[in-house]
Amino acid sequence: MKIGIVGLGAAGKTSCFNALTGATVATGGFGKDTNTGILPVPDQRLARLSSFYDPKKTTPATIEFTDIPGLGSQSGGEFGRKALGDIRDMDALLLLLRLFQSDNVPHPEGGIDPVRDLELIEMQLRLADLDVIDRRLERIGASIRKAPKDQKESLEKENVLLVEIKQLLEDGKPVEVDEEGRRLLAGYGFFALKPVLWLVNVSDLTDESEAASLKSLQQMADSQGISLVVMNATLESELTEFDEEERQEYYDAVGLSGPAAPDLIQRSYATLGLISFFTVGEDECRAWTIKEGANAQKAAGCIHSDLERGFIRAEVIAYDDFDRVESFTKAKEAGVMRLEGKEYIVNNGDVIVVHFSV
Ligand SMILES: Nc1nc2c(ncn2[C@@H]2O[C@H](COP(=O)(O)OP(=O)(O)O)[C@@H](O)[C@H]2O)c(=O)[nH]1
Ligand SMILES: [Mg+2]
Known about the structure:
The chain is α/β, with parallel strands linked by helices. It has helices spanning 13-21, 44-53, 81-88, 114-146, 149-170, 179-185, 208-224, 233-238, 244-253, 261-271, 296-303, 305-309, 319-325, 328-333, and strands at residues 2-6, 35-40, 57-59, 62-67, 92-98, 196-201, 227-231, 274-279, 284-291, 311-317, 338-340, 351-356. Helix 4 packs antiparallel against helix 5 (149-170). It is flat and about 65 Å long. The structure holds guanosine-5'-diphosphate and magnesium ion. Guanosine-5'-diphosphate binds next to helix 1 and helix 8.
């Protein structure tokens, strides 16, 4: 699953990427290349399960972050075709909003104004979606006329959906589409249907006006049900050399509780609608990623396709129960191990053993 870091030029996207991944990509430029890193998703539960088994290997869930350049002063403040294509490939967007002040780093739009920046980004993504829709609507009539009978109905539904979405985008309203609609529209990669998080790049929250701006952004985020994370991207990327105590002093000095990366990674994972289930043993304790709502057979499939194909049943222990009893044997004795079939909807944190035969 891929998260794209998206924002105006000099918002701190590359600095944020460095802070997240520990990379040392040059910042302050208008590079045209994307930077990609795969990161472990921090999970206390996996560490705890590992402590029961002392396995040879502990494997966390992962998530991929991509630093996408391309929106900024160098291109007249517009996303280029390449950037739009890169963003379209992402499963979710981390919108990076600049709140930090710096005389050395001019803002491409003039002053610091994260709400304006957000509107600029959203407007460009909306216009790009509208462009795709308009081009499709020009042809879809002909496609429907020519389509074989069994495809006509779904094309007609698609047509109706596109017209609805166009209207919502033109009115600047949020676009919501049900499960079936999402399936029909999956190929378009509409920006409006991608989950978003906001990352606010701050310099110093002990500064009253910065703190006030953050507060109003937080209210906006809350009212839209969006996850907002605060980071000082340069500070965080530069502190990796220091020991914990020194780092904390730096964070305290700018009114931050600590590094944003762990929380940001975890929230990104959640925003994608992802949950983890676990497999445990002396060889390996591992967190696996599935979409919330996936069933046991699908979960088995992410371990191995044979497990999905030959799925018989699963032994399942809820994480909290495992945490208490600390082993499979004790879970059986305590009666907290369940046998579940294919259709069982996996819960976040379930510890699972799949029985299969191929
Ligand atoms: N003071 C300060 N400077 C920052 C911060 N984040 C980024 N910068 C600086 O702003 C410039 C642009 O940052 P960069 O990460 O390259 O932004 P990008 O264009 O969005 O990738 C660089 O010179 C960074 O050092 C921050 O939180 N505080
Ligand atoms: Mg950059």
